[in-house]
Amino acid sequence: MRDTVDEVIEQWDALRPGLDTEPIGVVLRIFRASRHLDQGIKGYFDEHGLETWEYDILATLLRAGGGNTLRMSDLAGAAMISPAALTNRVDRLVAKGLVTRATDPDNRRLVRTELTAEGRRIAEDLIEGHLANERELIEALTPRERDQLASLLRKLLVPFEADPRATRA
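and the corresponding C-alpha coordinates:
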Protein backbone atom coordinates (compact mmCIF):
# COMPACT_ATOMS: atom_id res chain seq x y z
CA MET A 1 0.00 0.00 0.00
CA ARG A 2 1.40 3.40 -1.03
CA ASP A 3 0.37 6.99 -0.44
CA THR A 4 1.42 10.38 -1.78
CA VAL A 5 4.02 10.75 0.96
CA ASP A 6 5.88 7.76 -0.50
CA GLU A 7 6.10 9.71 -3.77
CA VAL A 8 7.45 12.80 -1.97
CA ILE A 9 10.13 10.70 -0.27
CA GLU A 10 11.07 9.03 -3.58
CA GLN A 11 11.38 12.44 -5.25
CA TRP A 12 13.72 13.67 -2.52
CA ASP A 13 15.73 10.45 -2.68
CA ALA A 14 16.15 10.91 -6.46
CA LEU A 15 17.09 14.58 -6.11
CA ARG A 16 19.27 14.25 -3.02
CA PRO A 17 20.47 10.65 -2.48
CA GLY A 18 21.53 10.12 1.10
CA LEU A 19 19.22 12.83 2.48
CA ASP A 20 17.57 11.57 5.69
CA THR A 21 13.89 11.77 4.75
CA GLU A 22 12.62 9.75 7.73
CA PRO A 23 10.88 12.76 9.37
CA ILE A 24 8.86 13.34 6.21
CA GLY A 25 7.33 9.88 6.57
CA VAL A 26 5.93 10.82 9.98
CA VAL A 27 5.41 14.58 9.97
CA LEU A 28 3.93 14.92 6.48
CA ARG A 29 1.59 11.98 7.10
CA ILE A 30 0.37 13.54 10.37
CA PHE A 31 -0.03 16.88 8.62
CA ARG A 32 -1.95 15.40 5.67
CA ALA A 33 -4.10 13.19 7.93
CA SER A 34 -4.86 16.24 10.07
CA ARG A 35 -6.08 18.16 7.03
CA HIS A 36 -8.32 15.28 5.93
CA LEU A 37 -9.71 14.85 9.44
CA ASP A 38 -10.26 18.60 9.76
CA GLN A 39 -12.21 18.64 6.49
CA GLY A 40 -14.35 15.69 7.62
CA ILE A 41 -15.11 17.30 10.97
CA LYS A 42 -15.77 20.69 9.37
CA GLY A 43 -18.22 19.05 6.98
CA TYR A 44 -20.21 17.60 9.88
CA PHE A 45 -20.52 20.95 11.65
CA ASP A 46 -21.29 22.76 8.39
CA GLU A 47 -24.36 20.52 8.10
CA HIS A 48 -25.47 21.84 11.51
CA GLY A 49 -24.73 25.50 10.85
CA LEU A 50 -21.69 25.70 13.13
CA GLU A 51 -18.02 26.36 12.73
CA THR A 52 -15.74 23.72 14.25
CA TRP A 53 -14.33 26.28 16.70
CA GLU A 54 -17.85 27.19 17.84
CA TYR A 55 -18.60 23.61 18.79
CA ASP A 56 -15.18 23.27 20.43
CA ILE A 57 -15.91 26.18 22.78
CA LEU A 58 -19.45 24.95 23.51
CA ALA A 59 -18.17 21.43 24.22
CA THR A 60 -15.34 22.78 26.41
CA LEU A 61 -17.88 24.67 28.52
CA LEU A 62 -20.19 21.63 28.64
CA ARG A 63 -17.31 19.43 29.86
CA ALA A 64 -16.59 21.96 32.62
CA GLY A 65 -19.67 20.60 34.40
CA GLY A 66 -21.37 22.42 37.21
CA GLY A 67 -22.88 25.56 35.79
CA ASN A 68 -20.99 25.06 32.51
CA THR A 69 -18.96 28.15 33.23
CA LEU A 70 -15.25 28.91 32.97
CA ARG A 71 -13.05 31.92 33.48
CA MET A 72 -11.87 33.27 30.14
CA SER A 73 -8.25 32.37 30.98
CA ASP A 74 -9.23 28.76 31.76
CA LEU A 75 -11.36 28.56 28.62
CA ALA A 76 -8.46 29.84 26.49
CA GLY A 77 -6.18 27.15 27.94
CA ALA A 78 -8.75 24.37 27.54
CA ALA A 79 -9.63 25.43 23.99
CA MET A 80 -5.91 25.85 23.12
CA ILE A 81 -6.28 29.35 21.69
CA SER A 82 -4.86 32.74 22.61
CA PRO A 83 -6.88 35.02 24.91
CA ALA A 84 -7.21 37.60 22.10
CA ALA A 85 -8.63 35.01 19.67
CA LEU A 86 -10.93 33.70 22.40
CA THR A 87 -12.36 37.16 23.11
CA ASN A 88 -13.31 37.55 19.45
CA ARG A 89 -14.82 34.07 19.32
CA VAL A 90 -16.77 34.46 22.54
CA ASP A 91 -18.13 37.80 21.27
CA ARG A 92 -19.47 35.96 18.23
CA LEU A 93 -21.02 33.21 20.38
CA VAL A 94 -22.62 35.83 22.67
CA ALA A 95 -24.13 37.50 19.58
CA LYS A 96 -25.61 34.12 18.58
CA GLY A 97 -27.08 33.62 22.06
CA LEU A 98 -25.02 30.48 22.77
CA VAL A 99 -22.93 31.79 25.66
CA THR A 100 -22.98 34.67 28.13
CA ARG A 101 -20.05 36.55 29.58
CA ALA A 102 -20.09 38.23 32.98
CA THR A 103 -17.75 39.58 35.62
CA ASP A 104 -16.97 37.04 38.35
CA PRO A 105 -18.94 38.07 41.47
CA ASP A 106 -16.04 37.03 43.74
CA ASN A 107 -13.34 38.83 41.76
CA ARG A 108 -14.38 41.66 39.45
CA ARG A 109 -11.09 41.40 37.52
CA LEU A 110 -12.12 37.97 36.22
CA VAL A 111 -14.60 37.30 33.45
CA ARG A 112 -16.61 34.09 33.27
CA THR A 113 -18.15 32.56 30.17
CA GLU A 114 -21.22 30.36 30.56
CA LEU A 115 -23.37 28.27 28.23
CA THR A 116 -26.89 29.50 27.62
CA ALA A 117 -29.67 26.91 27.56
CA GLU A 118 -29.49 26.97 23.73
CA GLY A 119 -25.70 26.55 23.75
CA ARG A 120 -26.01 23.60 26.14
CA ARG A 121 -28.73 22.02 23.99
CA ILE A 122 -26.62 22.29 20.83
CA ALA A 123 -23.49 20.88 22.50
CA GLU A 124 -25.44 17.95 23.96
CA ASP A 125 -27.41 17.28 20.76
CA LEU A 126 -24.35 17.13 18.50
CA ILE A 127 -21.86 15.10 20.56
CA GLU A 128 -23.08 11.64 19.54
CA GLY A 129 -23.22 12.53 15.83
CA HIS A 130 -19.80 14.18 16.08
CA LEU A 131 -18.30 11.04 17.63
CA ALA A 132 -19.98 8.83 15.00
CA ASN A 133 -18.46 11.07 12.30
CA GLU A 134 -15.01 10.82 13.90
CA ARG A 135 -15.40 7.02 14.14
CA GLU A 136 -16.17 6.94 10.43
CA LEU A 137 -13.12 9.08 9.64
CA ILE A 138 -10.79 6.54 11.31
CA GLU A 139 -12.58 3.37 10.20
CA ALA A 140 -9.58 2.29 8.09
CA LEU A 141 -7.87 1.38 11.38
CA THR A 142 -8.72 -1.63 13.52
CA PRO A 143 -9.57 -1.01 17.19
CA ARG A 144 -6.08 -2.23 18.14
CA GLU A 145 -4.45 0.08 15.59
CA ARG A 146 -6.51 3.02 16.89
CA ASP A 147 -5.27 2.29 20.42
CA GLN A 148 -1.68 2.05 19.20
CA LEU A 149 -1.95 5.26 17.23
CA ALA A 150 -3.55 7.10 20.16
CA SER A 151 -0.72 5.95 22.41
CA LEU A 152 1.97 7.03 19.94
CA LEU A 153 0.35 10.41 19.33
CA ARG A 154 0.05 10.94 23.10
CA LYS A 155 3.78 10.25 23.41
CA LEU A 156 4.43 12.79 20.66
CA LEU A 157 2.12 15.46 22.16
CA VAL A 158 3.21 15.32 25.82
CA PRO A 159 6.50 17.21 25.33
CA PHE A 160 4.73 19.92 23.29
CA GLU A 161 2.01 20.33 25.91
CA ALA A 162 4.48 20.33 28.79
CA ASP A 163 6.42 23.25 27.26
CA PRO A 164 4.90 26.54 28.51
CA ARG A 165 6.19 28.22 25.33
CA ALA A 166 4.07 25.92 23.16
CA THR A 167 2.42 27.81 20.33
CA ARG A 168 -1.32 28.29 20.53
CA ALA A 169 -3.50 28.87 17.49
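(Above: one complete record from the training split.) The chain is about 65% helix and 10% strand.
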